[in-house]
Amino acid sequence: MAPSRASDDVYPPTLSTLDAEHLLCTIKDWSVAHGLTVRPPLSVVAAEADPHGILATTAPVTLFPSPFPKACFQQAKSIQKAYNSLYAAIAQDEIFLRDIVQEIIEVDDFIAELWQVHLKVKEEGYSQNLSLGLFRSDYMVHEATSDSAPTIKQVEFNTIASSFGGLSAQTSKLHHFLAKNNYPLLDKPLPTGDLELPENSSAKGLATGILVAFEAYKNLIEPLHDSCVVFLVQDPERNIFDQRHLEYEIQEQKPGVPVFRLPFAEILSRTSIAETPKRQLLYQLPSNPKKVFEVAVVYFRAGYGPGDYPDADAWKARLQIERSHAIKCPTILTQLAGAKKVQQVLATPTSDSTPSILNRFVKDAPKDIEELEKTFTNIFPLDDSPSGLEARKMAVDPEACKGYVLKPQREGGGNNTYRSAIPPFLKSLPETHWKSYILMEIITPPPVHNIILRNGALEQGGVICELGVYGTCVWNQETKEVLHNEEAGYLLRTKGDKSEEGGVAAGFGSMDSVRLV
Ligand code: ADP
Ligand code: MG
Ligand code: MG
């Protein structure tokens, strides 16, 4: 990385052994004391060692905030509201989503099942028109040439279970703390005030989004029972503290709002639908089954992938939520709007004479369209269209494939195929299945150095940073009115530059925060 302070300095500074030990010790304790933590992996801590499930361990984190171009950070933050509106509009456009889903439905059972749930509820009539989006748009820095100004390119847009808003706010606080108290004391000190570290409101912002939906629900209907928020979760969940931070922030902002964690597999045993035209979702407290709440908001931190749907009951459970009066974050249509295939359709270059597909969703805001398009990188379908046929050739070409990543319609990390692994992977599939994948240009950000603390050990070297910007949006599917639209803080995830995937939960990345340069 180019030196970013005085020209004789390097960033981050080279650490003496004693400095490294001291920082490690400080971070270890600060992380546990402030909930920058995850549950230990089940395979490492055997059930006998932790029979009551009380242990927590530090989340992987960088020792220093990674340098990130200020203009890129501002570009990503300033475009978030336009992205929120765009994806709210896509979620309202059932015809557009239907046409996309139709193309992949025969080879992707998961997408097909989701669509079936939507169709069933549509037939009966949706009872709730309000929809909540807690989105995260992910980017990497892209430098066209070494002397051109860097810009951001979008990796993906998440519309379901956008995670790490809780831990990310804590990571920013950790780096602020170190900048004040520890970096100035290093053998090669980083003086206080030398680092520009922006505030990060991710936990607050996401909690506010949930509360806006919670209040909107109560403004629409006189609840039958006390109303509550339900977090639909996986069980076990290692990343539980990330979710707890949002819960605590909700309760900080509006003391007394009941928030319950409901494992996806327990939906049918713990919830029911009121036999009223509105179909309110009722939640029974496990500790006191006589106590019933009316669910105003269902926040999904599960249900984004096939693993959460092992049997027909799981789909019955998803249907129960979807047909209920609760405000969903997300609805099935909003979840589908986040499909990689949608991102590809938005980003596939059109000929000069064809207007951008964005005109269908973004009205009277040509500047927004221009700014959104600047963040797109080339993404191609692998279908029978002319660009699809062209991309199929590239994908199996041993040289051409090296600049690409192949993605299925999945979430949660660990699903992609990279570079020269693409041709053998595609050849192992029937060609009829190829169209459920997209082929995306690899974004190669400028090299950055940092030190990652993972499982108590330090990993030093070249890293790749991925910036996520959160957005919250509440809209009405019928009237298309947008009741709330905010940018809601950021996430920086950093991985070693030898690793293709960067998901912290998937085990490859680490939490980070930005140092603006
Ligand atoms: P998921 O929904 O599973 O998170 P992503 O599209 O975010 O899928 O891909 C997972 C990871 O793969 C990203 O976090 C990033 O590290 C890497 N990746 C994905 N697309 C690209 C790309 N175009 N260029 C470089 N890396 C990418
Ligand atoms: Mg994703
Ligand atoms: Mg991702």
TrEMBL record:
Q: In which pathway does it act?
A: Sulfur metabolism; glutathione biosynthesis; glutathione from L-cysteine and L-glutamate: step 2/2
Pfam families from the entry?
A: GSH_synth_ATP, GSH_synthase
Q: Where is the Glutathione synthase substrate-binding domain?
A: 228-337
Q: How is the cofactor bound?
A: Binds 1 Mg(2+) ion per subunit.
Q: What is its EC number?
A: 6.3.2.3
User: Which residues participate in substrate binding?
Assistant: 136, 160-163, 237-239, 243, 301-304, 493, 504-505
Catalytic activities: gamma-L-glutamyl-L-cysteine + glycine + ATP = glutathione + ADP + phosphate + H(+)
Q: Which residues bind ATP?
A: 156, 340, 407-416, 418, 440-443, 466, 495, 501
Any one GO molecular function term: magnesium ion binding
Instruction: Cite the entry's keywords alphabetically.
Output: ATP-binding, Glutathione biosynthesis, Ligase, Magnesium, Metal-binding, Nucleotide-binding
Metal-binding: is it a keyword of this entry?
yes
| UniProt GO cellular component terms | cytosol
- Asked if the Swiss-Prot or TrEMBL record annotates the protein with the keyword Nucleotidyltransferase, the reply is no
Cofactor(s) needed: Mg(2+)
The residues listed in the UniProt record as binding Mg(2+), with positions renumbered to this chain, are E156, N158, E411
Entry superkingdom: Eukaryota
The record's subunit annotation is: Homodimer.
Which family is annotated?
Belongs to the eukaryotic GSH synthase family.
Name of this chain's protein? Glutathione synthetase
Species per Swiss-Prot/TrEMBL record: Mollisia scopiformis
